[in-house]
Amino acid sequence: MVTRDRQRRVTITDVAQHAQVSTTAVSKVLRNAYGVSEAMRAKVRAAIDELGYRPHNAARAMRGRTFTIGVLLPHIRNPFFADIIDGLTEELSASGYQAIMVQSGGRDPVAERRASDALVDRQVDGIFWVAPACARAQLEQMAGDTPLVVLGRHDRSALYDCVLDDDEIGAELVVEHLIALGHRRIAHITDSTRGRSTALLQSIRATTYERVMTEHGLAEHISIAATSYSEEGGYEGARELLARDPRPTAIFAGSDQAAFGALAAVHEANLTVPGDVSVAGYDNARVTGLAHIALTSVDQDGGLMGKTAGRLLLERIGGRSAAVRFSVTPTLVTRRSTAPPP
Amino acid sequence: MVTRDRQRRVTITDVAQHAQVSTTAVSKVLRNAYGVSEAMRAKVRAAIDELGYRPHNAARAMRGRTFTIGVLLPHIRNPFFADIIDGLTEELSASGYQAIMVQSGGRDPVAERRASDALVDRQVDGIFWVAPACARAQLEQMAGDTPLVVLGRHDRSALYDCVLDDDEIGAELVVEHLIALGHRRIAHITDSTRGRSTALLQSIRATTYERVMTEHGLAEHISIAATSYSEEGGYEGARELLARDPRPTAIFAGSDQAAFGALAAVHEANLTVPGDVSVAGYDNARVTGLAHIALTSVDQDGGLMGKTAGRLLLERIGGRSAAVRFSVTPTLVTRRSTAPPP
DNA sequence: GTGCTATTGGGGAACGGTTCCCAATCGTGA
DNA sequence: TCACGATTGGGAACCGTTCCCCAATAGCAC
User: Fold this and answer.
1) Mean pLDDT of chain B
2) Is the pLDDT of residue B327 over 70?
3) What are phi and psi of A146, to 5 degrees?
4) Which residue of A lies nearest to B337 if distances are taken between CA atoms?
5) Which residues touch B147 (CB under 8 Å, ≥6 apart)?
6) 3-state secondary structure of A67
């Protein structure tokens, strides 16, 4: 490896010398710790500005905090995650904490494990894990090491905080809406990740779909394609569903991304939306509202969820240990992709 | 702050004791450094496995490497970035390096600076900066600290590597395509970030649009909306363009995201695509191919660009200091969103 | 003046790795 | 047998911070 002639960093020692004080004093000023006079504070701050000092994060990590929040996302392709991250960023912006994101790979347990280890090893002060697919035990183990907020799982734990929307209400809204429009052959696209632990949101959405169908005497029309919540998954799932006989008149995709794929499959089959087939999604990511897509979807306010997750993490870092569960009530946003059946 | 009763970490000292060797030896094994026998290597590896040791990243960062690659993205909402990251992840997967992503905020210089500082402070071994909007001097300064690969800028530098597509060819392809279809009133949506430094890709695309229009004697029909490459930007830009008199018959949006927004605006104006207005984008992110969107776009193989960026970074970390410039030749993908004018 | 507490500042030991440098051993050719 | 270079292993300094202490001083009630 070449040794780059990187100009030596300005360290806390340089600042201390320049301000004619001890490194301890500088450290105290930096951390707003107790035991420094106003005069000292001013003198040190001046030296910091003058030298352009920035704390060395790795050195901090050796002893204390890193002022870093780790975010685990299944992947960054899902536009709904962008809404969540916007909320998180907003909440953290004034706090001095920096969010770093890592892709967990979602459906591959080994990749997911590697990603979560990477954050723990990097000594982040808190972790925000979006839609973890691993076992609960692994979450609890991690929570023992690092403050943890989980988004989108329904199992309760005393060790970490949960942010979620009420997927049962959300799925109910969609299915009831389609039934009210007159549909009977309503199909569903779900995500098959890891045998559908009942705590995963995709399980709840699927189970609720089945329940509501049954409650309306439509049990015989239950029709599920278990692929994934991605665009490819939605596409494959919809192709599979449309090939069944009789063909469904409505498709409830478990996510907006899957709904995009489903829309593509419907168009490709030379069918129209909503003329021949109605399509509904879930998440109401910002794109779904665009006029040429106009997808009926369930809104769950990703921005608020991200913002809340940020707040909960800061609280936990600040010392709270009691677990908090924050639930958002979803609403249905009706757009042009759903209509009465042909 | 509560002190969590985290079980003390397994350190390199524990491993050394367990294997009855020095910490130096363990360190050498970990880094595949010179000066350890095969027997030593085996003994140490056994101890590592037995104790479940994982290197403490922060401690490494103090003297050695962090095995971390920092990625700066304007924001994660752009689906094209997901293609890039997929390529990068693939390239890094076998290398032992972990990518961490930070949002730079794109259009806000202060936020961008803060994000890039955050990565430097966290002592990443290399930085992959997608579409930086800052001054070149800032890039060169950073390159002095940390190996750097920049994506999507056309200014040359001897200090960092560049990965880009030939935006001149790409823009040419689109405009020529629209002209060949018979369009004359072709409008363009660009990104106004920071006074259009000529090195930014949006400047090249816009300038090329003007050049090709002029070359075909269509200078009088040049019509540009300078908003942003986001969906909102495309929406606002298209509304602005459609309100002009005479109305354009084709819109060349500088990015797919902007094209999505433009599509929405066209639909909202009760015009059809491509009947009344043709729309073309740039990037050919995976979604644009979906049948119900079917956007004509310029393909620039984001996966390959991400993969290459990863390789270049690893090379630079390995010691290369000569600057490399990797350019992708884009191709036009014609879909249903473009057709002859009414 | 004395004893006490509150406030302010600093000394120095960690933290967990890496790396410089030196010592011991071994093999080999003269 | 000896000199010498190559190989292997380890001791100890060092990276930049934080934090546990202790010291000095000031203020105050008696």
Assistant:
1) 92
2) yes
3) -140, 140
4) A292
5) B125, B126, B127, B160, B313, B316, B317
6) coil
